[in-house]
Amino acid sequence: MELHLQGKVALVTGGGQGVGRRICLELAGEGVKVVINDYFLERAQAVQKEIEAAGGQALAVQADIGDSEQVERMFAAARERFGDVDILVNNAGVTVARRTKGGMPPTFMEMPVEDWKEVVDLNIYGVMNCCHSALPGMQRKGGGKIVNIMSEAGRVGEARLAVYSGAKAAMLGFAKAIAQEHGRDCINVNTIALGAVSHEGIANGPLHPSSTPETDDRLKKMLGAYPIARGLGRLSRPEDISGVVAFLASDRAAFITGQSLGVSGGYVML
Description:
InterPro entries: NAD(P)-bd_dom_sf, Sc_DH/Rdtase_CS, SDR, SDR_fam. One of its GO terms (biological process) is monocarboxylic acid metabolic process. Belongs to the short-chain dehydrogenases/reductases (SDR) family. Keywords: Oxidoreductase. By secondary structure, this protein is an alpha/beta fold. It has two domains: 215 residues, Rossmann fold; 37 residues, no CATH class. The protein has ten helices and seven strands. A seven-stranded parallel sheet has the order 3-2-1-4-5-6-7, with helices on both faces. Helix 3 runs parallel beside helix 5 and helix 5 packs parallel to helix 7.
C-alpha cells in the first residue's frame, strides 16, 4: 500500500528507543523527514544516525516535553531545519514508579504525592504542549496528523497504575476534543492504545526481547492475557505498532479521526 508520505515532516516524542525508535525508522522509510525527540540526546542522535545511514533525513532534539518553553524551542528547531510539522506522534510516556523504583508499582494510596506530578506532566502536559506548538503549523499547511500513543490502562484502568491510568484517559479525552475542534482544518487526531511491548530499551525480565515462554515463567503467564499472543507465542513488538502509526499519519486514513485503536493483541476489546 502506497502511503504517499514522501517529503512530509514528522516529530516523534520519546523517539530514542523502543516503540518511538521504530516509529521514527518506519516513517523515515516512507520518505518522511523525522525530528526525533528524547529526554536523552544521545538516544535521539543514535536514531538520527540510523536514519541517515539508510539515506533518510532526520534531526535529533533534546527536550523535556513537560516544559512548554523547551517544547517551543524544539518546534522552532524543527521549522528551521525542515519547515512546519505535518505529523506529530505523541509517543513519550512512562509510569514513573515502575521506571525509577522497579518491581511492583505502588497503589494510589502508597504513591508519594510528588510522583503524581511527574506522571501527569509527562503524559498530559507533554501531549498538550506538543499539540499547542504543532497545531499552528498544521493550520498554515492546510492539514496534519496527530497520533497519540497511550496505554490500555487509560481505556479500562489498571490497579497499581491509578495516576498513570488517569493521565492516559485524560490524553484520550483531550485527543477527541482536539479532533472535534480541528476537523475543519483537515487535522486528524487519533490514539493507539498499547498493552505490554517487548523492546530493546528493557534491561531484563519478561519484556526483554530475548525472553521466551520457555525461559521465563512470568512471560508465559502474561501471554494468557493477550488472545493473539497465545497463538503467536510472544508479546507485541515495536514493529507491530509502527506500521499502524504510519497508516494513521497518511491520507489513507483521511476519514479516521477522534478514534482509539487498540494494538494490544486483544488485551482490551471495545
